[in-house]
Amino acid sequence: MSTFAKIFPLKKKKKADYSHLNASQPIGVFDSGVGGLTVAKEIKRLLPHEDLIYFGDTKHLPYGEKSKEAIIGYVSRITEFLLEKNCKAIVIACNSATANALKEVLELVDGKIPVIDVINPVAEKISYEIHTNVGVIATKATVSSGLYRKSIRKHNKFIKVDELATPLLVPAIEEGFKNHPITHAIIYNYLSNNKLKNIETLILGCTHYPLLMDEIKQYYGNRVRVIDSPSIVANELRMVLEQHRLLNATSHKAHYEFYVSDLTKNFEKISKKIFGNTISLELKEL
Ligand code: DGL
Protein backbone atom coordinates (compact mmCIF):
# COMPACT_ATOMS: atom_id res chain seq x y z
CA MET A 1 0.00 0.00 0.00
CA SER A 2 1.33 3.46 -0.86
CA THR A 3 2.07 5.93 1.95
CA PHE A 4 -0.76 8.13 0.63
CA ALA A 5 -3.24 5.26 0.83
CA LYS A 6 -2.07 4.47 4.35
CA ILE A 7 -2.61 8.04 5.53
CA PHE A 8 -5.88 8.59 3.65
CA PRO A 9 -7.52 5.15 3.46
CA LEU A 10 -10.61 5.18 1.23
CA LYS A 11 -13.63 4.71 3.44
CA LYS A 12 -15.73 2.10 1.67
CA LYS A 13 -19.45 2.65 2.17
CA LYS A 14 -20.85 -0.56 3.63
CA LYS A 15 -23.46 -1.90 1.19
CA ALA A 16 -26.68 -2.53 3.05
CA ASP A 17 -27.44 -6.21 3.47
CA TYR A 18 -30.99 -6.89 4.58
CA SER A 19 -31.10 -10.57 3.59
CA HIS A 20 -31.94 -11.53 7.21
CA LEU A 21 -35.20 -9.56 7.00
CA ASN A 22 -38.54 -10.96 5.98
CA ALA A 23 -41.04 -9.10 3.79
CA SER A 24 -43.86 -9.97 6.20
CA GLN A 25 -42.35 -7.96 9.08
CA PRO A 26 -44.11 -4.67 9.93
CA ILE A 27 -42.93 -1.11 9.23
CA GLY A 28 -42.42 1.16 12.26
CA VAL A 29 -43.50 4.80 11.96
CA PHE A 30 -43.20 7.40 14.68
CA ASP A 31 -43.78 11.04 15.55
CA SER A 32 -44.43 13.13 18.63
CA GLY A 33 -48.18 13.10 17.94
CA VAL A 34 -50.64 13.03 15.07
CA GLY A 35 -48.31 14.63 12.50
CA GLY A 36 -46.69 11.35 11.50
CA LEU A 37 -50.12 10.05 10.58
CA THR A 38 -49.95 12.21 7.44
CA VAL A 39 -46.96 10.06 6.41
CA ALA A 40 -48.51 6.80 7.66
CA LYS A 41 -51.67 7.54 5.67
CA GLU A 42 -49.65 8.01 2.50
CA ILE A 43 -47.73 4.78 3.20
CA LYS A 44 -51.06 3.00 3.64
CA ARG A 45 -52.28 4.40 0.31
CA LEU A 46 -49.11 3.53 -1.59
CA LEU A 47 -48.33 0.23 0.15
CA PRO A 48 -51.74 -1.17 1.14
CA HIS A 49 -50.38 -4.63 2.03
CA GLU A 50 -47.84 -3.49 4.60
CA ASP A 51 -48.41 -3.91 8.35
CA LEU A 52 -47.72 -0.69 10.25
CA ILE A 53 -46.80 -0.01 13.86
CA TYR A 54 -47.31 3.66 14.73
CA PHE A 55 -45.92 5.30 17.84
CA GLY A 56 -47.13 8.77 18.86
CA ASP A 57 -45.08 10.21 21.70
CA THR A 58 -47.97 12.32 23.01
CA LYS A 59 -46.48 12.48 26.50
CA HIS A 60 -43.49 14.46 25.20
CA LEU A 61 -45.19 16.57 22.55
CA PRO A 62 -44.21 19.10 21.21
CA TYR A 63 -40.72 17.97 20.23
CA GLY A 64 -40.26 21.29 18.45
CA GLU A 65 -39.84 23.08 21.77
CA LYS A 66 -37.46 20.53 23.34
CA SER A 67 -33.68 20.46 23.55
CA LYS A 68 -31.64 18.25 21.24
CA GLU A 69 -30.65 16.06 24.22
CA ALA A 70 -34.28 15.51 25.23
CA ILE A 71 -35.31 14.65 21.66
CA ILE A 72 -32.43 12.17 21.36
CA GLY A 73 -33.60 10.47 24.59
CA TYR A 74 -37.24 10.10 23.46
CA VAL A 75 -36.34 9.03 19.94
CA SER A 76 -33.81 6.43 21.12
CA ARG A 77 -36.42 4.72 23.31
CA ILE A 78 -38.95 4.66 20.47
CA THR A 79 -36.35 3.21 18.09
CA GLU A 80 -35.54 0.44 20.59
CA PHE A 81 -39.25 -0.28 20.97
CA LEU A 82 -39.75 -0.56 17.19
CA LEU A 83 -36.71 -2.83 16.90
CA GLU A 84 -38.16 -5.07 19.65
CA LYS A 85 -41.38 -5.12 17.63
CA ASN A 86 -39.37 -6.71 14.84
CA CYS A 87 -39.87 -3.92 12.29
CA LYS A 88 -38.25 -4.39 8.88
CA ALA A 89 -37.91 -0.61 8.41
CA ILE A 90 -38.31 2.53 10.48
CA VAL A 91 -39.81 5.75 9.17
CA ILE A 92 -38.95 8.79 11.29
CA ALA A 93 -42.16 10.64 10.46
CA CYS A 94 -41.05 13.73 12.37
CA ASN A 95 -38.84 16.55 11.15
CA SER A 96 -37.81 17.64 14.64
CA ALA A 97 -36.68 14.07 15.42
CA THR A 98 -34.87 13.78 12.07
CA ALA A 99 -33.14 17.14 12.51
CA ASN A 100 -31.92 16.34 16.02
CA ALA A 101 -31.58 12.58 16.36
CA LEU A 102 -31.14 10.94 12.94
CA LYS A 103 -27.52 10.08 13.72
CA GLU A 104 -28.51 8.39 16.99
CA VAL A 105 -31.28 6.38 15.32
CA LEU A 106 -28.85 5.17 12.67
CA GLU A 107 -26.34 4.20 15.36
CA LEU A 108 -28.96 2.21 17.26
CA VAL A 109 -30.22 0.48 14.13
CA ASP A 110 -26.63 -0.26 13.13
CA GLY A 111 -27.46 -0.98 9.49
CA LYS A 112 -29.77 -3.88 10.37
CA ILE A 113 -32.89 -2.32 8.83
CA PRO A 114 -33.49 0.63 6.52
CA VAL A 115 -34.28 3.99 8.12
CA ILE A 116 -36.27 6.55 6.13
CA ASP A 117 -36.40 10.11 7.39
CA VAL A 118 -38.62 13.01 6.33
CA ILE A 119 -35.98 15.61 5.43
CA ASN A 120 -33.33 14.05 3.19
CA PRO A 121 -35.64 12.50 0.52
CA VAL A 122 -37.57 15.80 0.24
CA ALA A 123 -34.41 17.91 0.08
CA GLU A 124 -32.92 15.66 -2.59
CA LYS A 125 -36.05 15.71 -4.75
CA ILE A 126 -36.34 19.50 -4.52
CA SER A 127 -32.72 20.02 -5.42
CA TYR A 128 -33.04 18.22 -8.76
CA GLU A 129 -36.10 20.21 -9.83
CA ILE A 130 -36.25 23.83 -10.93
CA HIS A 131 -36.51 25.76 -7.69
CA THR A 132 -34.45 28.83 -6.89
CA ASN A 133 -36.14 30.34 -3.85
CA VAL A 134 -37.34 27.73 -1.42
CA GLY A 135 -39.03 28.48 1.89
CA VAL A 136 -39.28 26.03 4.77
CA ILE A 137 -41.69 26.39 7.67
CA ALA A 138 -40.96 24.11 10.60
CA THR A 139 -40.65 23.82 14.36
CA LYS A 140 -37.94 25.67 16.30
CA ALA A 141 -36.04 22.40 16.82
CA THR A 142 -35.94 21.77 13.05
CA VAL A 143 -35.11 25.33 12.00
CA SER A 144 -32.30 25.68 14.52
CA SER A 145 -30.62 22.54 13.12
CA GLY A 146 -30.45 24.12 9.63
CA LEU A 147 -30.74 20.60 8.19
CA TYR A 148 -33.08 21.55 5.33
CA ARG A 149 -30.69 24.18 4.02
CA LYS A 150 -27.65 21.92 4.43
CA SER A 151 -29.36 18.97 2.84
CA ILE A 152 -30.75 20.91 -0.16
CA ARG A 153 -27.51 22.81 -0.77
CA LYS A 154 -25.45 19.62 -0.57
CA HIS A 155 -27.13 18.64 -3.86
CA ASN A 156 -27.65 22.08 -5.39
CA LYS A 157 -25.83 25.11 -4.08
CA PHE A 158 -27.73 27.53 -6.32
CA ILE A 159 -30.94 27.18 -4.38
CA LYS A 160 -31.69 29.89 -1.83
CA VAL A 161 -33.30 28.38 1.25
CA ASP A 162 -35.10 30.46 3.87
CA GLU A 163 -36.30 28.71 6.99
CA LEU A 164 -38.90 30.12 9.37
CA ALA A 165 -39.90 28.71 12.74
CA THR A 166 -43.69 28.53 13.04
CA PRO A 167 -44.19 27.10 16.54
CA LEU A 168 -47.87 27.93 17.04
CA LEU A 169 -49.08 25.62 14.28
CA VAL A 170 -48.50 22.30 16.10
CA PRO A 171 -50.53 23.25 19.21
CA ALA A 172 -53.30 24.62 16.95
CA ILE A 173 -53.39 21.32 15.03
CA GLU A 174 -53.22 19.16 18.15
CA GLU A 175 -56.13 21.25 19.53
CA GLY A 176 -58.10 20.36 16.41
CA PHE A 177 -58.30 23.99 15.25
CA LYS A 178 -58.67 23.18 11.56
CA ASN A 179 -60.67 25.73 9.55
CA HIS A 180 -60.67 27.94 12.60
CA PRO A 181 -60.17 31.74 12.70
CA ILE A 182 -57.28 31.32 15.17
CA THR A 183 -55.43 29.03 12.76
CA HIS A 184 -56.14 31.37 9.83
CA ALA A 185 -54.67 34.28 11.79
CA ILE A 186 -51.55 32.26 12.72
CA ILE A 187 -51.05 31.13 9.11
CA TYR A 188 -51.47 34.68 7.78
CA ASN A 189 -49.05 36.04 10.35
CA TYR A 190 -46.33 33.47 9.57
CA LEU A 191 -46.66 33.29 5.79
CA SER A 192 -46.58 37.06 5.38
CA ASN A 193 -43.18 37.14 7.10
CA ASN A 194 -40.56 38.98 5.05
CA LYS A 195 -38.33 35.89 5.03
CA LEU A 196 -40.83 34.11 2.80
CA LYS A 197 -41.51 37.10 0.55
CA ASN A 198 -39.86 35.86 -2.64
CA ILE A 199 -40.29 32.11 -2.39
CA GLU A 200 -41.56 30.02 -5.30
CA THR A 201 -41.76 26.80 -3.37
CA LEU A 202 -42.73 26.06 0.21
CA ILE A 203 -41.74 22.93 2.10
CA LEU A 204 -43.95 22.04 5.05
CA GLY A 205 -41.07 21.03 7.31
CA CYS A 206 -43.25 19.52 9.99
CA THR A 207 -45.41 16.44 9.46
CA HIS A 208 -48.27 18.10 11.31
CA TYR A 209 -48.57 20.88 8.73
CA PRO A 210 -50.09 18.90 5.82
CA LEU A 211 -53.18 18.78 8.04
CA LEU A 212 -53.49 22.51 7.21
CA MET A 213 -52.66 22.06 3.51
CA ASP A 214 -55.95 23.56 2.30
CA GLU A 215 -55.58 26.69 4.42
CA ILE A 216 -51.92 27.15 3.38
CA LYS A 217 -52.74 26.69 -0.33
CA GLN A 218 -55.64 29.09 0.07
CA TYR A 219 -53.25 31.76 1.37
CA TYR A 220 -50.97 31.45 -1.66
CA GLY A 221 -53.44 30.72 -4.45
CA ASN A 222 -51.28 29.51 -7.35
CA ARG A 223 -48.32 31.76 -6.56
CA VAL A 224 -46.30 29.23 -4.58
CA ARG A 225 -45.90 25.50 -5.00
CA VAL A 226 -46.47 23.68 -1.71
CA ILE A 227 -44.53 20.43 -1.52
CA ASP A 228 -46.32 17.23 -0.59
CA SER A 229 -43.66 15.69 1.66
CA PRO A 230 -45.63 12.63 2.88
CA SER A 231 -45.94 11.29 -0.66
CA ILE A 232 -42.20 11.81 -1.34
CA VAL A 233 -41.35 9.94 1.87
CA ALA A 234 -43.77 7.08 1.15
CA ASN A 235 -42.30 6.76 -2.36
CA GLU A 236 -38.78 6.61 -0.95
CA LEU A 237 -39.87 3.83 1.42
CA ARG A 238 -41.45 1.88 -1.42
CA MET A 239 -38.31 2.25 -3.50
CA VAL A 240 -36.06 0.97 -0.70
CA LEU A 241 -38.33 -1.99 0.11
CA GLU A 242 -38.65 -2.88 -3.57
CA GLN A 243 -34.90 -2.67 -4.07
CA HIS A 244 -34.32 -5.16 -1.25
CA ARG A 245 -37.27 -7.41 -2.12
CA LEU A 246 -38.97 -6.53 1.14
CA LEU A 247 -42.44 -5.66 -0.14
CA ASN A 248 -45.12 -7.73 1.52
CA ALA A 249 -47.24 -10.16 -0.53
CA THR A 250 -50.16 -8.52 -2.34
CA SER A 251 -52.48 -11.18 -0.89
CA HIS A 252 -51.79 -9.89 2.63
CA LYS A 253 -54.46 -7.93 4.49
CA ALA A 254 -52.67 -5.13 6.30
CA HIS A 255 -52.77 -4.85 10.07
CA TYR A 256 -52.26 -1.56 11.95
CA GLU A 257 -51.13 -1.08 15.54
CA PHE A 258 -51.16 2.30 17.26
CA TYR A 259 -49.25 3.11 20.43
CA VAL A 260 -49.18 6.38 22.35
CA SER A 261 -47.19 7.38 25.41
CA ASP A 262 -50.21 9.27 26.78
CA LEU A 263 -53.81 8.56 25.87
CA THR A 264 -55.24 11.92 24.91
CA LYS A 265 -58.72 12.68 23.58
CA ASN A 266 -57.25 14.84 20.83
CA PHE A 267 -54.96 12.13 19.51
CA GLU A 268 -57.85 9.70 19.50
CA LYS A 269 -60.15 12.11 17.69
CA ILE A 270 -57.64 13.23 15.06
CA SER A 271 -56.13 9.77 14.48
CA LYS A 272 -59.59 8.29 13.90
CA LYS A 273 -60.39 11.10 11.52
CA ILE A 274 -57.20 10.46 9.56
CA PHE A 275 -56.97 6.68 9.77
CA GLY A 276 -60.57 5.59 10.24
CA ASN A 277 -62.78 4.78 13.21
CA THR A 278 -61.71 1.16 13.57
CA ILE A 279 -58.25 1.88 14.98
CA SER A 280 -57.59 1.25 18.65
CA LEU A 281 -54.90 2.96 20.67
CA GLU A 282 -52.67 1.24 23.17
CA LEU A 283 -50.90 3.10 25.96
CA LYS A 284 -47.17 2.41 25.98
CA GLU A 285 -44.96 4.39 28.31
CA LEU A 286 -41.34 4.24 27.31
N1 DGL B 1 -44.46 16.54 13.65
C1 DGL B 1 -43.22 16.95 14.18
C2 DGL B 1 -42.28 17.42 13.08
O1 DGL B 1 -42.38 16.99 11.96
C3 DGL B 1 -43.13 17.95 15.26
C4 DGL B 1 -44.22 18.33 16.12
C5 DGL B 1 -43.73 18.69 17.51
O2 DGL B 1 -43.30 19.82 17.73
O3 DGL B 1 -43.80 17.78 18.32
O4 DGL B 1 -41.41 18.23 13.36
* Poorly predicted sequence stretches spanning 5 or more consecutive residues: none
Number of strands: 10
For the sheet with most strands, the description reads:
6 strands, parallel
Side by side, the strands of the main sheet go 4-3-1-2-9-10
Percent strand equals 15-25%
Overall radius of gyration: 19 Å
Number of helices: 12
Bound molecule kinds, no repeats: D-glutamic acid
Shape designation: globular
Cα end-to-end separation: 50 Å
Question: Strand-and-helix sequence, N→C?
Answer: HEHEHEHEHEHHEHHEHEHEHE
The helicity comes to 40-55%
Quick check: average pLDDT? Answer: 93
By secondary-structure content and strand pairing, the structural class works out as alpha/beta
Catalytic activity: L-glutamate = D-glutamate
Keywords: Cell shape, Cell wall biogenesis/degradation, Isomerase, Peptidoglycan synthesis
Function: Provides the (R)-glutamate required for cell wall biosynthesis.
Pathway: Cell wall biogenesis; peptidoglycan biosynthesis
